Structures are given as structure tokens and as C-alpha cells.
What we know:
Blueprint: H1 2-7, H2 9-34, H3 39-61, H4 68-96, H5 101-124, H6 133-137
Helix pairs in contact: 2-3, 2-5, 3-4, 4-5
Amino acid sequence: MLKRFINLNIAKYFLISCLASIVDLGISSYLYDITKINYLLACNFGIAVGFLFQYSTGMKFVFKKGNKAKSFAIYLGTFAIGLLLANTTMWTSYNVLNLSFFNSKMMSMLVPFFITYFLRKALLGVNNGGKNKYENALQI
Length: 140
């Protein structure tokens, strides 16, 4: 059951996103808490580093390999959409809802997750690992 779940592309994307989020959160928290830079600047720097990690691993394990320049352009475009969503969520939760930096950061990572996955899936396709079309139909 667990192996079947891990073989789903959205599960792979989720695991990769979790690792990228750890990188993002660690860098963002360090920059905000230790260096005392603006919370949005700290978040954006963490997101950018997490994006590079997520791109390299996502293209290897989740999405179809094709034209690298086109794939990177799609990833970068969806990153921009995710960044806009993350910044909007971060600003709203931190300034309007008065949530802590950590809780705001968590919300700003969760909101773009599904949107960017489904955009990338639609634009890049998913790596079906050599499965037949019926097994691929089960991929989320």
C-alpha cells in the first residue's frame, strides 16, 4: 500500500516538495530570525533556493523529460505563479491575520503546492515510469 502510494506522481511531488520546503523554511527562518532582514525578502530567498532543488529533483522523478529549455521555462513560469501566491498568502497571514512568521510561512508553502503541481502536470506531463496506459491512468 505504501509502495503504491509512493509510486503516485503526486506523492513523489509531495515528498520532493517537503524536502524543498525544509530547505526553504530553514533558509527563510535563518534570514528572518538571525539576520533580521524583511520577512518577505527572507521568504523569497528561501523559496528561490527551494525552487532550484525542486526543479532538479522534480524533473528527474516526476515530470517527463523533454526539451530542457522548454521544461525550465515552464517550471520558471509556474514558479512565478507560485511565488505570487506564496507572497500574497504570507503578507495576508502575517500582516492581516497577525499570525506568527512560522505559521504564515507554513500557509504560504501549502497554498501554492497543489496549484503548481497541477499546472506543471498539465504543461509538462508526468513520468509514468514505463507503465502502460491503464496504470498511467491511475496517476494523479
